[in-house]
Automatic annotation (TrEMBL):
One of its GO terms (molecular function) is protein O-acetylglucosaminyltransferase activity. Keywords: TPR repeat. PANTHER family: UDP-N-ACETYLGLUCOSAMINE--PEPTIDE N-ACETYLGLUCOSAMINYLTRANSFERASE 110 KDA SUBUNIT. It comes from the Bacteria. This is Tfp pilus assembly protein PilF. It comes from Mangrovibacter plantisponsor. TPR repeats lie at residues 116-149, 150-183, 184-217, 286-319. It holds the Pfam family TPR_16. Transmembrane segments: none annotated.
Amino acid sequence: MSNSNPLDSQQLTVLQALELANAHWNAGQAAQAEQLCLRVLEVAPLQHDALNLLGLMMHAYGMQDQAIDYIRKACQSPEAPALIFSNLAELYRQKGLLLEAEQAARLAVEQEPELVVAWSNLGIILQEAGKFTDSLECLEYVVSLQPDNAEAHNNLANTCQRLGYLQRARESYQRALELRPEYAEVYSNLTLLLSDLGCIDEAAASARRAIDINPQLADAYLNLANIELSRMRYADARHWVNSLLEFAPQHVGGLTALAQIMIIDERYEDAVTFARKSLAITPDNANAHKVLGKARQGLGHYEEAEQAYNRAAELPGTVAEEALVARSVLLMEMGDKDAASAGFELALKRFPGSHRIVAARCDNKFYQPGDPDIDVMEAALAREPALPLNEQMLLHFSLGKAYLDINESERAFFHLDRGNAIKRATFSYDAEQISVWMKSVADVFTPALMERFRGAGAASERPVFIIGMPRSGTTLIEQILASHPGVCGAGELGALGRAVARGGRFPDDVASWGHGHFLNIGADYLEQTSHLAPDALRVVDKLPGNFLYAGLIPLLMQGARIIHCRRDPVDTCLSCYSKLFSGEQLFAYQLDELGQFYLDYQALMTHFRRVLPPECFIEVDYETVVDDLEGQARRLIDFINLPWDDACLAFYETRRIVRTASVAQVRQPIYASSRGRWHRHATHLGPLLDVLGVEQK
């Protein structure tokens, strides 16, 4: 070498410098390796091996953008081997740049058709992009090249699962475990498969096994958290996500999952914060954009929510379909039925024949005989291999609704019974225990206790609580009230339950509380809801299940009002049975349990009717509102001590977010078609009618 050669001081050739750099890197001497690579690049700026090694170093340091820059530059060398293109593809995939990843991986396999790692990377990239058939072809080729490669069988199983080939997926996972018995990733992935098969306890156990083998396997924590979310064990889900973030505080999936849990807790500002943290790390993460949309929607920032959904839908991958559906549902909740319909059609253009999209729009339409959506959903349920159980459940509920619309009772209950049975199998519920607990609530709220703590709570006329059974007309009453310019309809809030839980065990501790306890809990609720329409004279909280706290409300807040909605018991229960609730309505998925819960609720409200002060409590019958809208609307406005406004009679024109299963109904003038609906389906309601003591007619 000449004296001007930067490597000359050690008498190294470029090849020797690279060999030494790799040796330093393999020995954990990163600084020396990096210096040697940089010296090589001074002599040969496009030396692909040096650029590749620097890229791998940056990746190891967590500096993803610099890693991509180095390896992308390495690929510009005419001598760059296929492996470097494969490395670039993997870095792009980790960054969420799936289109760029696919291009790089295809260049790798074209250059070296038997490079297993490149085919494997391409198969995984196609899997994440939702191109499952192409992914399957790639990963089958990998297995043919390396039949004893446990990782290849695991990757193949993942794609089989996404295609719905559940038995084949299970066989591939088992083969991977035969080859590598302590393969944590397989146990983690089995969690998803077992969940799809409805084996929830086994799924959770598999995720725990993965964590036992590899306590830093992030996906296992996320999969276990999702299992707990699916069975509404929110504290457990939060525990597993927090456990992940303890050792990986910048994990995008963990931050996004925490944002989702914050949404469930109605901590929407916190959810926005965590979703933004995710996007600061990976700006093109579709799931984080989708979750940000949900958080924005919860805050009432509808334009920003729609923008976030649109961004998620623009990005490649499987989230796009969910984002398009979420955007359409947002438009439906905002009252723009035409825009929502157009949104669902747009989604179907992007994902033709999607049974998920067709099922999702069931609440935005009234079915007529011969509706092609019915055929799409029936065909999806009849397909082989069978869909995952959660997708079957969604289709059964949507078809149940469709057949109820067209008065085909036999087919409606064929699907409703199956949908409810799938849901009921995912959680534990003890109807007898609930009965005992509700009786204990009534026992606490005696006339003496109500008198003793009268006036103990915080003073405010803002809170108005609409309570009752779900599907009893609560959304209709809220919409009538919220049409008044002085009223904010806040939807179904969890604020009261949180405030009570922070105060102590309910109802066990109530009898031992003093005046200060009631005051503090009431103040807690008012603080939680203070950001909701600060200028509104009244804020309506229409969480039906707050009937459990009906005795507590006047003790917590002087001036709060309670409106109890009632409806024909069988119509109410039928309407519950026909809905897949987004919230925690565990009593609703088996007819006899549903009937028993109704009786327990009825007994509790009979007790509260005797002890609640009349100035804070009225009852409204759905059927009476149908018969006399103006009279009942005036009664309601008078009860909450506001002047009359004619807008309350045109409630269906009010543009506000409505997030309940009744979203479609409150967007039209009042109608009586659902009154006595149960009589048309009485032959399918035997267990419910028996419990309620109602004779079939």
